[in-house]
Automatic annotation (TrEMBL), chains A, B:
HTH gntR-type domain location: 16-83
Domain of life: Bacteria
PANTHER family noted in UniProt: HTH-TYPE TRANSCRIPTIONAL REPRESSOR NANR (PTHR43537:SF53), TRANSCRIPTIONAL REGULATOR, GNTR FAMILY (PTHR43537)
Recorded GO MF terms: DNA binding
A Pfam family assignment: GntR
Keyword Transcription: yes
Keyword field: DNA-binding, Transcription, Transcription regulation
Claim: Phosphoprotein is one of the keywords in the record: no
Coiled-coil residue windows: none
Name this protein carries in UniProt: DNA-binding transcriptional regulator, GntR family
Organism field: Mesorhizobium escarrei
DNA sequence: CCGGAAAAGATTGCATACGATTTTTGCGAC
DNA sequence: GTCGCAAAAATCGTATGCAATCTTTTCCGG
C-alpha cells in the first residue's frame, strides 16, 4: 500500500459519465422552468452545447425520457414534457400513496445529523421565500422539492428514493405549469410541522401531515383543461 | 381520404423500436432465470445475437439498467443483477407500501371485462401450478407476477403501473434467487381471494389481503446472507 | 392569391471506426 | 510451480458517416 495508490475523488467525479452530467444539468433546467415545456431538445443542439457528440447527448435524453421529464417521438426528436392535467393528477395520486409511508419509515430512522440537515434545508427554503426576485419562485419550488428528497433519503429505501426523485421532478414541472399562487409559504410551515413530528418520532402524525401537505399542494393547482386539448396542442407548436 | 392512406398496425408494431424489443426479450430471459444473475451481457454479444449494432444493444442494456435488472460498471460492461438480501427487502418494502393502495384504486374501477381478464389470468396460473415440468416453476413465477401487473393496469395510474412493472420484475429475480419452496400454490388461492374482494368492491378487504399476500411471499424467502458476501462474490465470478 | 406537390434542408436511427481501458495470455525469473 | 510483468485480445466509450424520415421551402397550376 502506497500513498500513490490513492485516487483523488475529484478526478473520479470529473471522469464520471458525461451523459449523466448532461442529464443532471438538463433536468435542473427543466425543473427550474428555464426550459419551457414543449421545447425541442435536438440531439445535435444538446451535443454542441455541451461539447459532446450526438451519441452522448442522445444517451442523456434517453435517461430523461425514462424519468418522464422528456417525451421522445420516433424520428422527430425529444421535447420537454408537457404533462396533461390527467398526468398531473396521477403524479399526485402516486405521491399520496407513497410519501406518507416514506414519512413513517423516516420517522423511525431520524438521527441528530438528519435533524440538522433538515433544519439547514428549511432555513434555505425560508430564505428563498423571503426573497422576492424574479426567479425566487423557481428556487422556492426547487427547495420545496429538496425537502421531500431529503426525507426519502432518510427513509433508507433506495428504490423508493429513486421513485421519489422522479415524482418530485415531475411535480416541479406540474407546479410550474399549473400552479396558481404561493402555496409555498404555507408549504414551508407544513414542512416545519412535519419535521417536528419526525423529531418526536411521532410517525403517525408525520404521515398524516404529509398526506395533508400533498393535498394542499395539489389543491393549489388549476387542473381544468384550459381550452380543449386540440386547440391547446395546436397553439403549442 | 383514400383507402391507401391507411397504415397497417402490423407494420407499425414491426417498425417499433428495436432496442425496446431487445429489452423486452432480455427482461423476459432475466425474469425467467434463463439468464443467471451475474451473467455478463456484453454489448457485442447482445448485438450479434439480435443482429443489430452495438449502438442498439447498448440502448437496450441501458434501459434494463434503469429498471434495476442489469448492473453496469464503467468500462467493464453489463451484468444481470444479483440483488442482495437488503435489496430484496427494499423491493418488498416498496411493494407493501404501494400495492395495497393499488388494490384500493383497482377495486373502484373493476368492470366485467376486467373480471373476465382476471379469471383468465388465474386459470392460466392454476394450469402452470398443476404442471410439474422442469420450467413449471418459472412459468409459475411469471404468471404470479402477471396477476399483479394486471391489477396495476386496472388501477389506472400510468406512473404507478410503471413502478409496479419494475417492482414485479425485480421480485421475480429475488424469488428465483432466494425463494424456498412453493408458496405459489398458496399464492394462487390468495390471488383468488383478492379477486373476490375486488369483484365485491370491498376495497378495504382487497387491500388487507394484498398486504398479507406480499408478507407471505416475502416470508417464503431465505434472506440470510449465505456465507459472507466476500466468499459469495468470489464464487460468483 | 391560394392550395398542393416536389425538392431542399434538417434531424433522427443506426452502423461502423478508433482510441482508451480492462482482461487475458504468454513468458521468463525465482 | 508460481509469481510478476509485458504484450495481445477483448471490450467499452465516443465520434462520425450514411440512409431513412420528417420539416420547410419553393414553385407551379388553378
Amino acid at each position: 500500500m502506497n500513498i500513490a495508490d490513492q485516487t483523488f475523488p475529484a478526478v473520479d467525479s470529473a471522469n464520471e459519465d458525461r451523459a449523466q452530467a448532461i442529464r443532471d444539468q438538463l433536468r435542473d433546467a427543466i425543473v427550474d422552468r428555464r426550459l419551457a415545456p414543449g421545447t425541442k431538445l435536438s440531439e445535435g443542439e444538446v451535443g454542441t452545447l455541451f461539447d459532446v457528440s450526438r451519441t452522448v447527448a442522445r444517451a442523456a435524453l434517453q435517461m430523461l425520457s425514462f424519468e418522464g421529464l422528456v417525451r421522445t417521438e420516433r424520428n422527430r426528436g425529444a421535447f420537454v414534457a408537457n404533462p396533461s392535467p390527467e398526468e398531473a393528477r396521477q403524479v399526485f395520486a402516486s405521491r399520496r400513496l407513497i410519501e406518507p409511508g416514506i414519512a413513517i419509515a423516516a420517522a423511525g430512522r431520524m438521527t441528530p445529523d438528519h435533524v440538522a440537515a433538515f433544519k439547514a434545508q428549511l432555513d434555505e427554503e425560508g430564505r428563498f421565500i423571503a426573497e422576492r426576485g424574479p426567479n425566487a419562485r423557481r428556487s422556492e419550488i426547487k427547495a420545496s422539492g429538496d425537502f421531500h428528497l431529503l426525507l426519502a433519503s432518510v427513509a433508507g429505501n433506495t428504490i423508493l428514493q429513486r421513485f421519489m426523485e422522479e415524482l418530485v421532478a415531475r411535480s416541479s414541472l406540474v407546479i410550474a405549469l399549473y400552479g396558481r399562487s404561493g402555496v409555498s409559504s404555507c408549504g414551508h410551515s407544513e414542512h416545519m410541522n412535519i419535521l417536528e413530528a419526525l423529531e418526536n418520532g411521532d410517525s403517525e402524525r408525520a404521515s398524516a401531515l404529509m398526506l395533508h401537505h400533498i393535498d394542499h399542494i395539489e389543491a393549489d393547482l388549476d387542473l381544468r383543461v384550459r381550452s380543449g386539448p386540440a386547440l391547446r396542442q395546436a397553439l403549442e407548436f
